[in-house]
Structure formats: C-alpha cells, structure tokens
Description:
Oligomer: heterodimer
Strand content of chain A: 15-25%
Largest interface: A-B, 45 and 49 residues
Radius of gyration of chain A: 22 Å
Largest sheet of chain B: 5 strands, mixed
Amino acid sequence: MIVADRKPVDEIASSLAGYRKVVIASCGTCVTVCMAGGEKEARELAAVLSLADEASGVERSYELVDVKRQCDDEFFDGLESAFESADAVLSLGCGAGVQFMAERFPSLPIIPGLDTKFMGASRGLGYWVEMCQGCGDCILERTGGVCPVTRCSKSNFNGPCGGSQAGKCEVDPSIDCGWQLIYDRLKAIGRLGNLEEIVEPRDWSSSRDGGPRTSRNEQAELAGGTLAGSAGKDPGDARR
Amino acid sequence: MKVLLAAAPPEAAGRFAEAFKAAGAEVELVVEPSSLGPLRGSPGAFLYRLGGEERRAELAVLATDTALDPAITDDSAFRARLELAGYEHPVVFVLDGGDEPPATLSALALRRALEAASRKRSVVVFARDFRTADRGVEALYREARRAGVSTVRCQAVSVSESGGVATIKASTRDGEIEARSRFVVSASVGASKAVDEFAAALRLKRPGGADSNGRYWLHPASTSRRGVYRLEAPMFAGIPLEAVSRSLLAAAARDAVVSRTAGASAAGASAAGVSAAGASAASAWAASAWAGESGAGEALKGAKAREPAKVDPAKCAFCYTCYRACPHAALSPDPEAAAMRVDPASCEACGLCAAICPAAAIEFDGAEPISAEGAARGAAGVGGGSAPARSALPASAAGRRGRLKIIACENSAYHAAKAIIAAGGGAAADGRRSSSGAPAEAPIDFAGVELESVPCCGSVGGAAIAEALGAYDGVIVASCVVDACRHFDGNLRCKAAAARLSDDLERLGAADRLTFCEASAPMTGPLEARIRHAIERIDAVGQMPGGQR
C-alpha cells in the first residue's frame, strides 16, 4: 500500500492562496486506509481551513468530492462539472493521484494535500512501515524475504556494515538493522548459506536511475487498446 | 471472572491456576503457546482462539516463575546485604542473559542502585543494554545516572568469587573492565521462548518498539496492554500467590469498569438500577461493580438503547482497522462480501469503530443533542456516520452559529455538565468556597450553549469535532477520565484528535476555540472551570465573523 502523511495545514493553506473556489478531492484507496487522504480527512481539513479563512477574512468555499481512485480515468466520470467549476483542486491522493488529475484536467491547478512517503505495510493500528522501494529487480528470494534495498539504511547488498550494533542501525538506533533481520530470517528458514553468496553490483537502471518507468501488459493492451486521452503521455513512450 | 491464564514453565502452572481458583476466578489454563490464538478485544471482553475454538475471557495473565537473586526482589534482603557489604568496594549489579534485561529487571536493579547510591555507596551496573523505551525505566535510568550510579554496557560479563570478594570481568567496546565487590547482585533474564511466544499471542509487543527481541513489555506486574497482567512469581516473593491473584482480579475489575454499556435493550438492568448490556455478563459484572463501588447507579439510568453499528459493505475498504480497534471484538471479516460485519450480540454501540473507520463505512448513530435551553439542534455530524460523495460544508450551509457546544461522554462528563447547567454555574461553588474561602463565582449565562451526549468520546472523530467548530463559537469535548473507563483507547484517540485540531488552528493563526478535558460525573468543579474559561475566551475573541446567535 502507498503510505502518505497530510501536509502541515499551514503549508496547504498557503498553497491555496488566491483561489476562491476549492474542491477537496479525497481518494478512496491507499491513502484512505492510511488515514491521510480519505473522506474523513477531507471533511476535517475543509472544516479547519474554513475556520482559518473566516478568522482571516478570506472568502473561499470548499466542496468535497470523494474519488474512489484518483489514479484511474473512469473514476472521474460524472465528476467533471464539480472539478471544472472550481478554481483549484486540493487533491488528497498520493503523488500519482495528483499527477493523474493534472493530466485529466489540463486547465485546472491540482494542489497536493499529502506528502507521499512510501510503499509499506501495516504493523498495527495507525502504524505503517516502509517495505519496498520498487527497485524493479527483486532479490527477496536470496535475502529471506527481507529487502536489503529498503530495510538497510544504506541499501547494502552484502551486509551488514560496521554500523550494525546489537541489531540496530547506526543511522538511528530506533531502526532495526536490515541485515540483522535478514540474518535472523535466513537462520529461521535454514538458509544461512545464502549469506556466502556475494551479490554482484547491480544495474540500477531498473530502478529510478533509469528514469521514469512504465509497465505494460501486452495482452491487456492489445485487447483494450490505450485509454483515450493518455496516448503519448507515458514518460516511457519516447524510449520504446 | 473468567481468566485466561498463560503459564510457563508447565511445572509452575498448577500453582498459578490454584491461586486464581482460590481467588474466585474461573480459569482457562494454557501451557502450550502454540495452541493459543491471538488475543483480541479489551478488558472485560477478550476474545481468543484455543485449539481452533473461539473463547472469551475478562482478564488475561501471563504467569511465569523464574529464580531470581533475593537481593533484587526483596527489599529487606537487599538492605541487609548492603549493610554487610560495607563501603570499601562498590555495589555491583550484573544484569545478564538474553539480549537485554527486561524492563522489570532494569527497573528493579536501577531502583536498588539508586537506594545504594543514596546510602553513600558507589554503584556500578553492568548490562548488555538498557531497554529505556519504557518510560518508567528511562526516568529511573536518568535519575540513577544523576545520583552517580555508573552504568557499563558490556558484551559479556563474568563473576568469580574468592575470599568473599567477587571479581567482575566485563568486555566492553572500549576494552576489558574489571571490578571487585563484596556485594554483587546478579540477575539473569528468565524470559523463555514460551514466554515470548505467549507474549506474541497475547499481543504484548507494541509497534515502534523492538519487534524481534524486545521484551520491554515486562513490567513488574502489568504489561503494555491493559487487562493483560504479568505474574512473575519471584517479583511477589513473600506474598501468597492467592493474594496476588486477588489483587490482579481487582485491578482487572478496575480496568473493565464501564460506567454504562449500551445494548439492544436494558434487559440486563439489575436491582440497583444499573443498565447494562444483557449480552455480556462481563459488562454486567463490571457495571454493577462500578455502581456498587461509587454509588453511581443513578448516573447509569435512562441510557438510550442504541442500534449496533452497521457496516456498509459497498464502502468498506476491508482494511481491518475497525477489527483491530473494536474493544468488544464485535467486528469480524466476511470474506465473501470482502467487508467487515458486526456481530450485534457483541456490539455495545460505543461508536469507536465508526470514528476510526478510514472509509467512513460504519454507520452509527450515537449522539444525542440537548440544548441547554431545551431546544434541540442538529448533531452536526457528531458520532461518525457517512457523508454523501458530494457535500457542502455544514458550517457554511447552516449560516448560523451557536455559542458553545459541549460534547460529553454520557457515562461521565455529561452528568457533570448537566449538574452544572442545572445549578446555573454554581454546582462547584460550595466546594470551592470551603477550600479557598473565595466567594462563589457569578452564575454562567448558558444561552446558546448546547450539550450533546455521546456513548463514548472515542465515537467522536477529528472531522466531527472540526465540523462542530464550524458551527459553534466554542467547542468543549469532555471525555471520561482517560484511564478510568474501559474505552481508554477511545478517550486517547479523541484526545489526540483534539490536540491535532488545536495544533492545526494554531498553525493557521485561527483562535483556538477547542477545549478537551476529562471529567467524571462528580467532577463538576474542574468541568465548570473549563466551561467558564471557554465562555470567557469566546467573549474575549469575539464571535466568529458572520456568526449570529
């Protein structure tokens, strides 16, 4: 799941300066579950912003629109009139949602209300941890299901480094040493031998270093074709 | 009272079970950690699986027996040996075994170390690490360091003795350290694999702490989870186990205290006039215990029978948030619908799930607005519930602003608020005059003040409070005294939501017109002071622009 935090409210307020009619668009998927950008957060934010507006004499109206998923085209069907009559949209979606909306509504300013943080998992009520960086070349089968790219602060492939102390990371003692976790896990599954294999330096072009990435399912593409309006907008198109 | 008793080692289990039975509890004894499924729910209404079967308990105890040095468990033994040790050598504590000493042991050792330091001994504590994540231990650690206690973190430590003088050799990161002492308090961690497994099943490890090897949940008698207790036998040396069991049962009774539990009907009302959920014997017991103790039966009368919460499967994100949050284990997954469902027999209509549901998929009608002047008003969305996909803001739609809204827990603060309003703001005056000699304060003008009772402040989410702020010049959210009710999670969440809103308003430079406070039914004094202060502040800041009474 994509995990995000709401931006500081003053930062949101200042980015809304000058807009009189604002639509706050919540997103019903990941950011709803991580309690950052769902319907309830939108309601709370609208109420708080209106209070601040009233106190400072700013005239601005807020309308709440709940989009089930901000990163897919059809979920905006029927909501165009709500968006297009606004001066700006405050999106409580992740970075993908904000950008998708910006493409979908080319003449409308889309303002981010969240800081999108990571892909992670829930470790209990209201607590999420980063688990995956989407590096595009998974080696979890070698490391016992604990990701060295994400869970080692230095993304070491042949760890641990000298900064591993009593199972904790030198970057911050509240962080578990990723390689300690890998060791514990490999021990538990009887695969400590994996540690003897040296992981060769990798080609990071599968990750962010290769520029924006795309993923294509050709079967689906052939059957359904490219979605109307999105042709030529894929960052990877030029490279194909 | 039904007790889930997880005991290790098995040899000691019988003794623990006997003690709890003698104290009057019904005991479910578990010695095999793997047979125990995760413990859900909260004090008074725990739910767990044992051998594949779902069961209920009101209290859970993790009982263990580890042999420990009497000098660490017994005050008088420690003091006697301290006297004998004299002043020539330092007093040495060696906390060894496992990765780190549990908080229990660290706390005990640091307390003893402090005492020795205060008796003019030099003190050295050797340990592999100090688990200071536990707040109590952290404070003790700091205090001990200030009192001159030396702490040595070491990788390995050994103690050898000859002629009454012990030599302690420790290897540290900076090299070998050697100390000599006539008084070495040595304590190894007794925590075993079984204890760790039990801890996992009882969900004693908290996020943010050590997930793999941390044992900081080992407090002397309690754990990180309310209603789940530790009974580490040596820690209670000299006290009959039965007495310890009794006190744990009493503590559990305190934990499970619920001032009122709403059910589908008030059929469970006892002769004392207590309205309790007929569905749950635990709740009835807790409610009557509370009424018996405090004579608050009167306050419990007339509670509204509420509909259980309802999940809208179309909106449910199937995220398990409510499942984790429900104190009554009333929500369970419905895999076919890919949504949660409410078990109406378990639901006590507290509204905690509705407030925390991220997808606003839980419908719950809990709020009961009562105007101080007797005029009813809309509930401004308080109590959770769902909003339509497109909605205008209630504040702007209302165009009319009330003066002060008091959202109060119907079990506690609501009664205090009602008494204050009934007395016209003099409810607490007598008490104040007798203590301070100051004259009674002027009556409060309650015009435009509304009081709304909610089944638990945990049913009031941030959005509802924020919207109430839009509709009123001031809002007071008055919950139970946080620790005094079994919905402590709900109280804490509401408190956190209020704090976040206040912080947001401050960042935006808007006047903070929100007050969160805790009040029990008899606490009219403090609540009245809050109301007075809130009204004064509203009058000082002035009405919000555009508002009209």
